[in-house]
Amino acid sequence: PLLFLSLSLVFREQNIFSLMDILGGGGGGGNTLSAIAAHKADSLRRDYLVTIEEKSKATFLRAYMNWRCMSAGSSRVCVRMVGHKMEESYSETLKEQMSIVEMPLSDPPLCISCCPVNGDLLVGCKNKLVMFCLKYLVINQNLTVLDFERSLILHIDNLIPAEVAFCARHIAITTELDVLILKLEVVQQSVKKDEGPSTHTLQLELDEFIVCQKPVELLGEESKLCEIPITLESTELLTEDTKRFQVRYLLFRRFTPDQSPFGFCEETKLHSVQLLPVYQTGSVTAHEETENKKELLSLFCFFSLPHVGYLYSVGKLVELISTYQYSEKSEQAVLTPQFLHVITSENLQCFTVRCSAAAARDEDPYIDTTVKACPPVALDVCTLRMQLFIGPRAICHFRNHIILLTKADMEDITERRKPTRRMLSRKADSIKSRTNSESEPGWNLYIINTVSTVQLYREMVDYSRTYENVKTESCIHLLSEAHLLVRAAIMDPCFLTSDEKEELLRAFRESCAFLGDCYSRFDTKDYHLALPYYRMSGLSMTEVLKRLVSEGDEMQTYEKGFVFYLTHSLNEDLNEELSKESANKVLQIFYLADPVQLPHILCSPCMRNVCPVTAVKYLQKVEKIMPSVVLTLTKAFMALKMGDLTMYELEMDSYKETILACGFIGQPKLLRQRKEGMVLPTEFAVHLKEMQPGLLVAATVALHENSKIELEEADTFFKLLCSNSGNAIPQLLVDFWEALLVVCSQEEILQELLLRVTSQYVWRISKQQLPETKPLKTTEDLINSCNHFGLIFPWVTSIMSVGSPSDKDYGDDISKLQSLLCSQSIDIASALPVLEPLTEAGNVGLTIHVLCNTRLGKYEEAIDQLLKRCPDAAVLYAQHELKDDNRVVWWNKLLPELCKRTRLTGNDCPGLISSLKEALSVVAMELELKDFLSLLPEDGTAAFFLPHLLHCSQRKLLT
Q1: Could you tell me which residue ranges the BLOC-2 complex member HPS3 N-terminal domain spans (predicted)?
Q2: Which residues is 128 bridged to in the sheet?
Q3: Which of 194, 671, 758, 913 is most buried, most CB within 10 Å of its CB?
Q4: Torsions phi, psi of 904, nearest 5?
């Protein structure tokens, strides 16, 4: 019998080549074809044709390589066995000849399938499946030829496959009533192969007296219980790169003859099993002109009974997507990413599919958000078109072409009916027919040019308008179908090089706009989808307003979807300013539809041109019903825009300053707005900076603590507000850092703030730079309100009391810096590089040095510095710092150093003598008499030390 052929191999440049022309060149004349399969590669020279041929009761499996040479007129043929090494003599002529590869099998082949992803071949035999890997053999730099290697056998007991499908190591097998889907998974080391269900499971079913097979559906892990054990046998030559596989069961489904909704049918058999890959190549945002390497995104499996078809997703999740009910018994079906084409005894039907919707969710699990959306997978299936044919027998699909094989009996021809409706063809001459005079009369081959995606999309959109005011859900359904149609075309790997690329992108954006219109205009439960669809459409807010708002219609009502879209759009930082007319219209819309949102809407940068007088009028009406701090602040904002300072002061006096500061948390855009990613101060912030800087700083601190503004954003905010360029730090920003230190609890941010204020204090002191505005807090204020500023130590005060007059000009910064170092908060090791500029800054530098050494535990170095530069403070330092475990420094370091320096200077330094006496008093109280005596210098004057020795001995007697 004449067998139908994949168009990818017989359709080239709009010409049809006879399959027999190809097979005849290899001596295949007289052979009976029982099955045929093909692989279409990216390169024309890397595809092949595989056939199951019967002759003289013998069955052959053959692969035809480089078969286009036969259709081009060449008669050269090379016949060889699979895996046979190429002879050098063929190397120069292989380009111009067809190769026939014989593929011997131990059992007759029953069915075959080619993997569309990598070209591997799967052959179904009784109780086994044989996998052949496609190999690319490099003959020379200009010639690469194809070959196969038998790599794996799947032994399946008690199973005779009727059809197989093979794609990306996924295998779908059907018998008359069973479907089994498997996946071959690569394992790194030898694992125990799955041998199917345990004997316990089988025995259990026998104990339950199960005689008749029941219809069953097992998904995922449960499909292991299908009673079909599988054993793997590797036939490859073992190398280090040899891959080992294990079987994972994905789906098992068993039907019974009475499963047809049309009643008992003896001819109930499964047919048309197919695995459909969807690739990740196409993208609605792609602009590259070069085709990327195809990456598998999703995989779908279709199979059919005579009256119903089933479409499953078998990629990341195994689930039933759609069920297709046919109007009459089907003969064959073919699935594409856009449609399901089904032939019955007298017509060709076309149904919608949900593959693109499922694939979109595989690509982005969070697609249904405020940014992106996609129609649901569970939409009802639609029959798009139907066309009458006489005796359809087989069907296949290639791009935008349907190929149909028909066989018309004489009685059918005489009773032929005219088609009542055009289906897929737009032109009468788009259907070509060829009759083989040598074959049985009535056989016909049709090539049907299907309507282009864009044209069919237009028709569906036009048709949806008939339901706009009648059936809301029908309108949305039709537009969703049109959207999925375009989305499927965009996900096709050929999209990037398609002539329709720009048209498809325009149609995609337009379909999103139409869906946005539907969810905005209609009262639906999914009204929130208006936002993501409008965003994907690329429409501006002004354009959306023009689509939905009628001019001069004061009585127009606005649905939730439209208000939802406007609310989110206005609350985000868009770089779009509405005109005065549009802004006032939006104001009116929210006053009518959602008045509580008015304060937030008016703070949007998009509403910058709104009429403040009208805004205040609406706000006053809302305030009578729902007063709030945010509303009051918004009224004050509008008063500033109007230039009405009296009204502004009246509104600001309504609440205490602390409540007003917290009110900005409810609407930060009153103070700061974002444009192109940058934080900008508002007119309100500028006014507060001049009139109420304390409120501005307190409000900004509240925003930071409530995650409404980041630390770096606040830096930019204050620099722009104070017109400071470069790295200059305005005092208002330092005020913000100091205020933030009071409330900040995050250690990482805390250390950053401490370093920032320290750096600023150091910079001002070293550069003798006064702040441009009066600081909001003094050192005393910070010590009293913030535990990160400590009380200044007495010895620090002692050193500073003899400082230079210039230090008093920068006394606030100096005291704040010393107060910071007197606390335990700042990380001294990190602060040392920042403090470096003050190393030579007189008494200020001395206090910084000694404070740092003390925090680092370097007490002896601190004493050396004090004795060298300010000996009067040495004992005062020791009394404050040398306690507990550090008291030993008194007699090990301080006392010997004082004695040494006193001896060298004599009576010229009364401060040293005074310090020495203080040190002797402390040491005499702490040490035993013997230990004290051992510390005294040998050349000392006994009269000088006698009072301390007496004091030491008296303490001993008392104890």
Answers
A1: 45-435
A2: 125, 155
A3: 671
A4: -75, -30
Find the helix or strand (DSSP H, E) in which 583 lies.
Answer: helix 580-593
In a domain? residue 716: no
pLDDT digits (tens, 9 = 90+) for 627-671: 999 999 999 999 999 999 999 999 999 999 999 999 999 999 999
Return the half-sphere exposure (C-beta side, CA atoms, 13 A cut-off) of residue 704. 26
**Is 158 in a helix, a strand, or coil?**
coil
643: phi > 0 → left, psi -120 to 50 → alpha, else beta; which? left
As a whole number of angstroms, the distance between CA 909 and CA 905 comes to 6
Residue 615 belongs to a domain: yes
Domain count, the chain: 1
Location of structure tokens 């995050």? 746
Residue-level pLDDT at 903: 66
- Nearest C-alpha neighbor of 52 from the set 108, 97, 92: 108
Beta-bridge partners for 313:
300, 319
Bridge-based pairing of strands 271-279 and 296-304 is antiparallel
Give the residue, 397 or 73, on which the prediction is more confident: 397
User: In the predicted model, is pLDDT for residue 3 greater than 70?
Assistant: no
List the beta bridge partners of residue 673: 680
Distance CA 192, CA 178 (A): 26
C-alpha span between 598 and 631 (Å, rounded): 8
pLDDT mean over 22-26:
62
For all residues of the chain together, what is the average pLDDT? Answer: 81
- Indicate whether 613 belongs to any domain: yes
* Phi, psi (deg, nearest 5) at residue 88: -60, -30
Using CA atoms, how far apart are residues 926 and 948, in angstroms rounded to an integer? 12
Which strand (E) or helix (H) includes residue 219? strand 216-219
Residue 605: domain span? 540-654
SS3 content of the chain, % helix, strand, coil (to 5): 45, 20, 35
Do the Cβ atoms of 34 and 53 come closer than 8 Å? yes
Rounded-to-integer distance, Cα 459 and Cα 373, Å: 23
Six-digit token string for 923 = 């040491």
Q: Where are the alpha helices (DSSP H) in 768-858?
A: 779-785, 794-800, 811-822, 828-835, 842-855
pLDDT at 90: 57
- pTM, two decimals, is 0.78
Q: What is the pLDDT of residues 144-173, one digit of tens each?
A: 778 888 889 999 988 899 999 999 999 999
DSSP 356: H
Residue 12: exposure state from Cβ atoms within 10 A (0-12, 13-18, ≥19): middle
Q: Does residue 15 lie in a domain region?
A: no
Cα–Cα distance for residue pair 398/381, rounded to 1 Å: 23
The whole-number average pLDDT for the span 289-303 is 75
Report d(CA 65, CA 939) in Å as an integer: 113
Whether 183 contacts 172, CB under 8 Å: no
Q: Which of 167-176, 378-387, 684-693 has the lowest mean pLDDT?
A: 378-387
Residue 121 half-sphere exposure toward CB, CA atoms < 13 A: 29
Amino acid letter, residue 404: L
CA distance 19 to 53: 13
Please compute the mean of the pLDDT values over residues 88-93 and round it to a whole number.
57
Q: Give the model's pLDDT for residue 419.
A: 45
As a whole number, mean pLDDT of residues 170-197 equals 76
CA distance 638 to 338: 54
pLDDT at residue 271 above 90?
Answer: yes
pLDDT single digits (tens) 561-576: 999 999 999 988 778 8
Q: Which long-range contacts (CB under 8 A, 24 or more apart) does 596-602 make?
A: 596/622, 596/626, 597/567, 598/622, 598/631, 598/634, 599/628, 599/630, 599/631, 599/633, 599/634, 599/667, 600/570, 600/571, 600/630, 600/667, 600/669, 601/566, 601/567, 601/570, 601/571, 602/634, 602/637, 602/638
